[in-house]
Amino acid sequence: MKESDDGTTIVASSESATAIQNEVSLWNTVSPDEQNNDPIQVSTIPVTSDVNDISFYDTSNFFVALGNGTIMMVRIGKKLEVVHQWKDIHHFKSTKAPATGIVCQSPEIASIGEDGKLNLMRMNQDKPYKTIDADSCSLNAAVFTSQNEIFTGNSRGMIKLWDLRSTTEKPVQSTSLAEDSEVGVTSMDSEIVESYLKLCITSSSQPENTECSSLLLTIDAALSYVWEQLHTGQWKDVDPVWRQLYSYISLFKTLAYLKLDEDSKLHLADAITACDMGLIMGEPILDGLLSSIASNINEKLWKSSQTKSTFKETDKEEVGKECYPQLNQKDLIETVQLPSIETFLLDIMNKKPVVITGAMDFWPAMEERRWSVNYLRKVAGYRTVPIEIGSKYTDDAWSQSLTTINEFIDDYILKPNKAAGYLAQYQLFQQIPQLKNDIVIPDYCHLGTCDDINVNAWFGPRGTISPLHYDPDHNFLSQVVGSKYIRLYEEQVTSSLYPYEQELLFNTSQVDVEKPDLKRFPLFSSAPYVETILEPGSMLYLPPRMWHYIRSLSTSFSVSFWWK
After folding, report:
1. How, if at all, do strands 173-176 and 149-154 pair?
2. Same fold, 1-170 and 329-563
3. Is residue 473 a contact partner of residue 454, using CB atoms and an 8 Å limit?
4. CA-closest candidate to residue 516, choices 552, 467, 483, 470
5. Residue 279 — φ and ψ, nearest 5°?
6. Residue of 174, 115, 121, 175 whose CA lies nearest to 140
7. Is the pLDDT of residue 261 over 80?
8. Rounded to an integer, what distance in angstroms lies between the CA atom of residue 87 and that of residue 404?
9. 343-367 burial string, b = 16+ CB within 10 Å, else e?
10. What CATH code is assigned to 1-170?
11. Is 271 helix (H, G, I), strand (E, B) or coil?
12. How far apart are CA 455 and CA 119, in angstroms?
C-alpha cells in the first residue's frame, strides 16, 4: 500500500479472493472528522502478475513492479489508466524474473529484479536506456541518493553505490552487512538491507510512522550490537570493519528519520545526530556521504532558526590586559616573522620553540570566513561533538560528554560561571569539512618523515587548562580566536617536573604549574622555563617531547598540527 504526497488517495495492490486475478486499486480516504472514515474504492485495474512494489513519480503518476518482470506506468484521473508498460525487462535466460522494486527520482525511474539487474528508464522512452548487471543474486532494495546516484541492496546483505553517469558497470563502492568471515555480523543487518531500505527510503512516498518506528528499533538493536564490539578491548585493536559497519547503519538510521518527515525539526535533529554518531564512532564511507548529509541538515536547521543572532559581535568577551600573567622579558619565547622553509629546517626544527607570525594571515578563518561564535553556529551549530567537562583532565571530577556545538556555546562559552567545558584534542575537521576548508596545513609540516598530519581542534571558554605534559611529535599550535598563556620546559628538567608514575599519565606532571605545592614538589621552583601569550594569528612551534602548560585567557579556538 502506498499513499500519494497529497495524502488524499491510496493505491493498494492485492490479490482477489479467488486468487484468479491481481489488481491495483485507487482509494479515497475520508476526513477524520467525518462519521464514516473508512476508505472508499474509486477505481480498480487488473494486472498480469503479483504486485511487488509501487512508487509514486508525482501526484498524478505512479509505477508498479510486477512478478512477471514488467513495469507499469499508471495515471490517476477519474479512474486508473495504464499509460505505458516496459514488458519483461527482468528475465533469466529462459524465464521471466520478478521485478522486486521500483524507485523514482525525476526524471529517472529505476527498477530492480530477481535477475540482479538494475534498469534505468524515463517516462517518454519505450525501453530502458541503460541496464546494469548489478548483482549475481536477487536485488531486494534500491534508493536514490541524488539524481545521479543510487544504492542497491541484495538478498545476501550486499550494499552497492552506483554512479549513473559512469560508462562502466562497476559500483563506486560496496560493502557487506550480512556476511563477513572475520566478523560474523548478525542477521539483523540483512533485515535492515531487505526491509528497511525498501520500505523507508522509497523516493516519493512516506511510510506510516509505526512502520518506520519498528524499523528504527531494528536499527538501534543493530547499532547496540556493533557498539558492544567497538567497546570490547582497546579502541586501537578494534577491527575497522566494525567501525565501517557502524557508519553504514547510522546512514540508514539518518535516512529513516528523514523519511518520517523531512521538514520536522525534531526528525531533522534526530537525523543529524545519527549522522554525527556514525562520523564519531565509525569510518569514512561513500566519499563523505554522512558529512554531506549532516552539512545539508545543519544548513536547513540554521535557516529555519529563530535565534540566529544569539551572540552579538558587540557582546564579545572583554579581557583586560591586567588579567594577563606578568611575563619576564628574559624568559619570553622567541618570535620570528614567517621564516623560510630552509631557515626553519636549519635553525629551528628540533632545536628550539618559536612563535611564528605571518603564517596564518591568508587563512580563510582569519579573513573572509573569520571564525566567531556566530560563524560556528551557522556552519556547525547542530552538529554533535565530544567535549571534556572539568578545567583539566587530571581533575578527579573530569568527565566526557556528547553535545551539540550550539548547546556547548550556550552552556559553556556564554555562561562562564558554569563548570568548564572544553572541545579538546578532537579531529573536528574530519567530521566537518567546511571548517577544514578554513585552515591551511603549515608548509613546515611537510619537512617530516611521514605524510600523516594529525589535525585537532581546541575550543573552549576562558580558564580551560592543558596540564603540564609533553607529546612525542612536532607540533604547531595555531591560535585562531582568543589568547592563551603558555609555559615550556625542556626535556632535560623532567625529573624536576614530577611526572605521574602510572602508565596512562606518564607524560603528565603532577604539579599545578601556577599554584605549585612546593612542599610536595620542591625541585619544581628551580626548573627553568620560557613562556608567552599566544595571540590570534600566531602559531607556536613545539619540538618533540617539550613539556608545555597552556591556559586560555579568553574564549579560545586553537588548531594543532602534530607531525613526525
Report:
1. unpaired
2. no
3. yes
4. 467
5. -75, -35
6. 115
7. no
8. 51
9. ebeeebbeeebbbbeebbeebebbe
10. 2.130.10.10
11. helix
12. 44
* Helix H or strand E segment including 289: helix 289-304
Q: Could you give the residue ranges of the DSSP H alpha helices within 359-502?
A: 373-380, 405-408, 428-431, 433-436
- In this structure, what DSSP letter does residue 35 have? S
Task: End-to-end CA distance of the chain: give it in Å, rounded.
Answer: 60
In the 8-state DSSP scheme, what is residue 409?
I
Sheet holding 51-56, edge to edge: 51-56, 61-66, 71-76, 80-86
What are 459's three cell numbers? 575550543
Contact 86, 70 (CB under 8 A): yes
pLDDT of the residue at 404: 95
Task: For 176-193, write each residue's pLDDT tens digit.
Answer: 664 443 333 445 555 555
Instruction: Report whether CATH 2.60.120.650 matches the domain 329-563.
Output: yes
* CA distance linking residue 70 with residue 127, whole number of Å: 11
User: Per the omega criterion (within 30 degrees of 0), is the bond before 107 cis?
Assistant: yes
User: In Å, what is the CA distance from 200 to each residue of 13, 140, 245, 257, 280?
Assistant: 18, 13, 19, 9, 25
Residues 6+ positions from 418 with CB-CB distance below 8 Å: 411, 412
Q: How far is CA 9 from CA 43, 84, 187, 419, 439, in A?
A: 11, 21, 36, 55, 52
Statement: the pTM of the whole predicted model exceeds 0.70: no
Domain boundaries, the chain: 1-170, 206-304, 329-563
Overall average pLDDT of the 533-559 stretch: 96
> Which has the closest alpha carbon to 497: 466, 471, 528?
528
425 Rama class: left (phi>0) / alpha (psi -120 to 50) / beta: left
What angle separates helix 289-304 from helix 240-260, to the nearest 10 degrees?
40
Which range (197-201, 269-273, 418-422) has the least confidence? 197-201
- CA distances to 99, 390, 562 from 51, rounded to whole Å, are 9, 60, 59
Cell matching residue 480: 585562531
Residues 206-210: what's their mean pLDDT?
58
